[in-house]
Amino acid sequence: MGNVGLLLVGVALFVNGLVSVGLVSGRGAAPINLFVGTAQVVLPTLVLVQADGDPGIVNATWPSYLFGFTYLWFGFIQIFDIDPRGFGWYSTFVAAIAAYYAIKSVGTDPVFAVIWATWAIMWTLFFVLLGLGVVKVGRLDLGHFTGWFLVLLGVPTCTVSAILLLNGIWPTSVVAGSVALVVLLAATALSVVLARLSAGGEDVLPASSGAAKTSVVGGVPQPA
C-alpha cells in the first residue's frame, strides 16, 4: 500500500486498540477511522489514475482499498451502530490477502513478510470477534487481547515502516526478518499478559432497554 497511507494507518490501529481495552469510546474513535479510510481510498485512486495501467504500480496500490474500506466501514459501525457481522466476514477476505502477501514476500522482503502476517492475524481477530461473535478463548478475553495487539503492533508495522520506507532505509536481510518475527512473538505474548490484567476492568455499558448489558469490543457492542 502507499507509504503515505501506511503512515496514517498506524494511528488508526492504535486508537482502535485503545477502544477495545476500554480507554477510548467507539464513537470517539470514529473520526480517525473515517479520515484514514477516506485517505486510503482517495490516495490509491489518484495513483491508479496516473499509473497508465502499469502492472507494478497497480499491484502495489490496490491492497490499500482493502484497508480503506475497513476503516470507513468500521467508522460507520461506530457512529450508526450497524450490525458488525458483515464487517467481520469481510475481514476474512482482507486476512486472506494479507496472508498471501506474507507468503509471497518471504523470499524477497522478510521484514514485510512478518508485517503482512501481523496484519493477517489482526484481521483474523476481527473476523473471530465480530463475524463469529467469539469474545473469549478459555480464560483469555479476545477483545482485550486484540486491543493490546493493535496498540503494540499498529504503529510499528505501519507508521514506523512508512517512515523508514519514505526515507529509503528499509532492511531486507534475513536477520532483519528474524528480528521482526521475534518482535511479533514478544508483542503477542505481552498482549496476552496485558489482556489478562485489564480484562477485569472491561468496559460495560447498559443496553437501551436497561434489561441487559453489552461489552464493548473495538467500539462495537457485543452480547455479554
UniProtKB/TrEMBL annotation:
<feature type="transmembrane region" description="Helical">
    <location>
        <begin position="62"/>
        <end position="80"/>
    </location>
</feature>
<keyword id="KW-0472">Membrane</keyword>
<feature type="transmembrane region" description="Helical">
    <location>
        <begin position="87"/>
        <end position="103"/>
    </location>
</feature>
<protein>
    <submittedName>
        <fullName>Amidase</fullName>
    </submittedName>
</protein>
<feature type="transmembrane region" description="Helical">
    <location>
        <begin position="6"/>
        <end position="25"/>
    </location>
</feature>
<keyword id="KW-1133">Transmembrane helix</keyword>
<keyword id="KW-0813">Transport</keyword>
<feature type="transmembrane region" description="Helical">
    <location>
        <begin position="32"/>
        <end position="50"/>
    </location>
</feature>
<keyword id="KW-1003">Cell membrane</keyword>
<comment type="similarity">
    <text>Belongs to the AmiS/UreI family.</text>
</comment>
<feature type="transmembrane region" description="Helical">
    <location>
        <begin position="115"/>
        <end position="135"/>
    </location>
</feature>
<keyword id="KW-0812">Transmembrane</keyword>
<dbReference type="GO" id="GO:0005886">
    <property type="term" value="C:plasma membrane"/>
</dbReference>
<dbReference type="InterPro" id="IPR003211">
    <property type="entry name" value="AmiSUreI_transpt"/>
</dbReference>
<dbReference type="InterPro" id="IPR038523">
    <property type="entry name" value="AmiSUreI_transpt_sf"/>
</dbReference>
<feature type="transmembrane region" description="Helical">
    <location>
        <begin position="175"/>
        <end position="195"/>
    </location>
</feature>
<dbReference type="Pfam" id="PF02293">
    <property type="entry name" value="AmiS_UreI"/>
</dbReference>
<feature type="transmembrane region" description="Helical">
    <location>
        <begin position="147"/>
        <end position="169"/>
    </location>
</feature>
